[in-house]
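Action item from last meeting closed. Structure (88 res):
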């Protein structure tokens, strides 16, 4: 099982409580001076919560993405299914 760091936030679009999991390997690899962009897809209609996370695992900025497009090729589908079964 992968190690993750969990952060909770309420989505400003739908008020759903979102638990954000960031892979430690990604956190460790990033430049600590740059906020890590993290995206969380959910809701009906589907939208994305875009969070910028600092090295102290605090959310510094959030955005909502309502315009989402997913490539309809088998490689992308396979990768999405992999994320689905093992999200972090
Ligand atoms: Zn939402």
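Sequence:
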């Amino acid at each position: 099982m992968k190690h993750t760091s969990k952060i909770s936030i309420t989505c400003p679009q739908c008020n759903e409580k979102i638990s954000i999991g960031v892979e430690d390997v990604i956190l460790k690899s990033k430049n600590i001076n740059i906020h890590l962009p993290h995206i969380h897809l959910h809701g009906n209609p589907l939208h994305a919560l875009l969070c910028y996370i600092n090295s102290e695992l605090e959310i510094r900025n959030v955005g909502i993405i309502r315009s989402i497009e997913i490539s309809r090729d088998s490689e992308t589908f396979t990768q999405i299914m992999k994320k689905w079964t093992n999200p972090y």
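Note appended to the action item: The beta strands are 4-10, 17-23, 36-42, 47-53, 59-65.
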